[in-house]
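Q: What residues go here?
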């Protein structure tokens, strides 16, 4: 049996002394992912717009016994988000894991979705991920030996990239693009860097406040989900850890669904027909 096979299975979920960058890490999925990686042994560069939120996440990372490097920034700027790769090297001397979590787009009915809304959604969900990934690749390759642990990119996509739902034209199109970007980048970067994505379902974050605060809309969403509940950020963070760690060492180019079983949902939550 190989040394890898002889390891206890739980050891594969450890990322001890690796370095991660997590974008959109001030709250929600990004914050939960940063803390999960720290609890599994990583030092983490965390970035988002709001410094006070990042400070709270940094405290949780440090409570787990790891180091946090806080970078408050407007991550919609491509040069700024690409600079997080160098920030990781300057703070911790290496880079092993990137979680491209920034993204999103406000729902709006078809006739109110202008071309610039599509362009903005693509920029925020795909171009930002590419800018950071492209900057991270040379650092991930430094010092890596054949057969050693691969670098890991995890993109946060959405179930709306593969199913239909009224009001999600720009968002769903951008997330579908991010999913296919993942497949293409995985082919380009194999075997030394793995690239995967998570098709996130309905998760209790600030992005879902409109639904969470409306009992009728929340009930509709819960009933459309086979597991009959809205997910928690930690549900996604656990999937991030799997894909970022050696537990996912034989997985690349995949979009892993963490969506409560959502397949063909009824997501007509009250948006007008057009």
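A:
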């Amino acid at each position: 049996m190989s040394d890898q096979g002889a390891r206890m299975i739980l050891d594969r979920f450890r990322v001890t002394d690796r370095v991660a960058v997590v974008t959109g890490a001030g709250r929600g999925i990004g914050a939960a992912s940063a803390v999960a990686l720290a609890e599994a042994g990583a030092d983490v560069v965390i970035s988002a717009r709001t410094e006070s939120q990042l400070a709270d996440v940094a405290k949780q990372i440090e409570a787990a016994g790891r180091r946090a490097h806080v970078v408050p920034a407007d991550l919609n700027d491509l040069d700024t988000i690409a600079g997080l790769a160098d920030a990781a090297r300057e703070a911790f001397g290496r880079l092993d894991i990137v979680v491209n979590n920034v993204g999103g787009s406000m729902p709006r009915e078809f006739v109110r979705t202008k071309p610039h809304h599509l362009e903005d959604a693509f920029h925020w969900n795909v171009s930002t991920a590419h800018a950071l990934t492209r900057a991270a690749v040379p650092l991930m390759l430094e010092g890596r030996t054949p057969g050693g642990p691969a670098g890991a990119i995890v993109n946060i996509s959405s179930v709306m990239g593969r199913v239909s739902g009224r009001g999600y034209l720009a968002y769903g199109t951008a997330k579908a693009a991010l999913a296919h970007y993942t497949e293409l980048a995985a082919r380009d970067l194999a075997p030394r860097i793995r690239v995967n994505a998570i098709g996130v379902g309905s998760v209790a974050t600030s992005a879902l406040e409109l639904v969470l605060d409306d009992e009728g809309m929340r009930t509709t969403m819960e009933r459309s989900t086979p597991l009959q509940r809205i997910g928690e950020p930690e549900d996604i963070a656990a999937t991030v850890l799997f894909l970022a760690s050696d537990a996912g060492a034989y997985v690349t180019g995949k979009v892993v669904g963490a969506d409560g079983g959502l397949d063909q949902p009824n997501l007509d939550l009250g948006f007008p027909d057009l």
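A: Context that may help when evaluating the design: The longest helix spans residues 115-141. The beta strands are 19-23, 43-48, 68-72, 97-100, 151-158, 193-200, 255-258.
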